[in-house]
Amino acid sequence: xxxxxxxELLRKEVIDEGLCTQCxxxxxxxxxxxxxxxxxxxxxxTLVEEKNSSDIEKSCYSGCPARYCSYPKLNRFxxxxxxxxxxxxxxxxxxxxxxxxxxxxxNGASGGVITAMLVHLLQTKKITGVICLKMGAKxxxxxxxxxxxxxxxxxxxxxxxxxxxxxxxxxxxxxxxxGPLAYVGLPDQVASIRKLQQQGHPSAANIKYVFxxxxxxxxxxEAIQSFLRSHSVKSEKEIVSLQYRAGEWPGYLQIKLxxxxxxxxEKFYYNxxxxxxxxxSSLQVADFTNELTDISVGDAWSPKYxxxxxxxxxxxxxxxxxxxxxxxxxGKKSLSLEKISLKDxxxxxxxxxxxxxxxxxxxxxxxxxxxxxxxQPQNIARSRIAVEFVLAAVFFTGKxxxxxxxxxxxxxxxxxPCFNTLRLRWKxxxxxxxxxxLWETKFIITEKKE
Length: 450
What we know:
The protein has 450 residues and is of the alpha+beta class. It is 40% helix and 18% strand.
């Protein structure tokens, strides 16, 4: 197969079909031949020059997680076996935890667990650096991938980023690092790293530890632009700093402006923008708990922990080196860990697990071309499919220009609480349908040759 064919395959099978998840792998491995360009608010890989099409390497296509990404194969590669339960993936231990260092805990999105693990690995010289995201490295309102090599640099990369940022654009640069490295990414980004490792590609050879957050929904950067417009701010260039989870857990959106103003919105109030600017990858990717990591981390959504605040995380250890790391840190008292059952851990996110493990397969089945994850639910009840039709109508309406205009002209003190009330009512109304049979869902293997 000629090199030119790989760009054509990527363009025809992924980009033109609307399947790109913006993981960044193709751009990161293109040696400058590809770049991201925004098209209708969506960043997509594009040739820098048309004549470069013949220079695109096979890895730009074969490392893509959007069209063909066999989770059975990747599980066998990473963990030497397939999950018995496809809802959480391979899980060896589940905990509620937080960083004992108060600074790390408060700077994190929830319990500061990932940051604490990265600092520990660096201090114990198990790694030389971390591939992660840093907000405001060059532009105050943008995050970009970096290789953090000091404790201070790791701490500067704390917090979650809720707008699209292609981490894997850094792969060509990070491949030149001596290593070993740790890597922090979203499920699709992690899947791409695992594909590259499976293929023996040098860009991922120096990555030893892989961590990642639970990932439910993301929004395009248009969400921030819309939020600014609703506060009579004409351009994102007025931003001095941007934090998606500032302050006491669960945190709030905080935007500081050049004119001295500070715009804030509680997490659940700011979420009113999700139906209007949710990313296509959020609706497409079936992995919520970041199943191919060594350790994945999510917020501990439980009345018990929410009433305490401070920040608690669900911590799922998936590999032996993940288990070893948690034991070591618990022994040194740098992490506080409380064992809980996997069922209790999953119950904290039942709504979003259903959104991914059943909802994504329903949504993908409606596409002309859909992702092949190598497995799928054996059967989904009609009542659950009906729920998805309602959600589809909501997201369709949210894309309408008039709908976005209306929400931008409503005060946050009205639209935020109203959205949160509607969100809670919807969760309660749909809970019985969305939870019915969820934990008993059976999956079948459908993997094909890539």
